[in-house]
Amino acid sequence: MLKTYRFFTAFIFLFAALVANASAIDRDAINNQFSDWLNKDFYKEALKSGISAGTFSEALSTVTPNLALPDLVIPGEKPEAQRRQHQAEFSAPANYFSAKTLARLIGDGKAQFSKNRGRLKKIEKQYGVPASITLAIWGRESNFGNVKIPYNAFEVLATKAFMSTRKDMFRTELIAALTIVQNHYMDAASMKSSWAGALGQPQFMPTSYLKYAVDFDGDGHRNIWTSTPDTLASIANYLKLNGYKANAGWGYEVQVPETVGCFLEGSDQGKMLSEWQKLGVLPQSSDALPEIDKSRPLYLLMPAGRLGPAFLVTDNFYVLKSYNMSDLYGLFIATVADGIEGKRGFIESWQKVDELYQSEVLNLQNKLQSQGYDIGKADGLAGFKTRRSIGLWQQKHGQKPTCFPSRSLIADIR
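Above: the chain's sequence. Below: its structure in token form.
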């Protein structure tokens, strides 16, 4: 047994050495291709966009591709077909709403409210966004500024502009990042990002930084990396400019009777509060309801279909969702904000669901689309159009609608 183990271990080390050597050879070739693209093709594109040679050199002269980043397509290879999401916002809802994580962020959010009360009140007055919402986003994105943001933004953006699955998007973001440096908003060395190229504590992509970042502390820099005032005001400014309405609320948890189809979910199927009440969609709790804008339609939100809590939400919810384009994200922010204000959390529990590969969801979407269902964009993400199409298919074929994908459902739909 010991000899077998030693042989196996030696084989592993030999195999690892061979792989490492092959990777080194590949890396040299990729580095050369990257350098040629960056200093010829992209350099010309940057100059046409108004970026100076000096700014280009300051930001990119020492950058090499980071092949450890996710979602890359190595030159000469095809994208990985079957992969799980790197972002938690597209995982199983029960995993995303960890009670421990929610409790920690709510507790820390309350402490940050006490610490920054004065500046938060000024920001709330200027932008019309509740302090609790601003704090919830700050907490989710960077743990109130305590998460280390490890990457050189230009290394990430240039790598992805050269070899990611969304090269055109990242080339636009790389130009925007160069514009930040050229306009002296921040110097290149200070621009740290996530693995996806999102900047600073609010995690703005560079194009969003140019639109929404503000200098709230008046020091001449839009410093979302180390300035708490700039960070908080920039988050609130984002929400305001994307349509967040003061004193309109985001929504609340409701009971959805079996007579109301889960396929009534969606931002394109709004009804007035009185209409929802007639259908029997009523508050889950008898506690005092939050203030909401009753002059506007409300929308049914069921992020896990029948396998989790349901909500009636206002337009403000979709502004929160736009920060990360995920129903779970928008609901997480709303839930943490409610907790900071002392309100209770979910009443109905999140049930366990199949954790699917993106390719499996994409397969399901393609099947539904081929049968005439409007699933929105076939992207492997179970958005509300995909969820309600599932429910409509289930109803048509004599199944109890769940409005949520599963492996058994993928096998059933032919």
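Residues 2-48 form the longest helix (47 residues).
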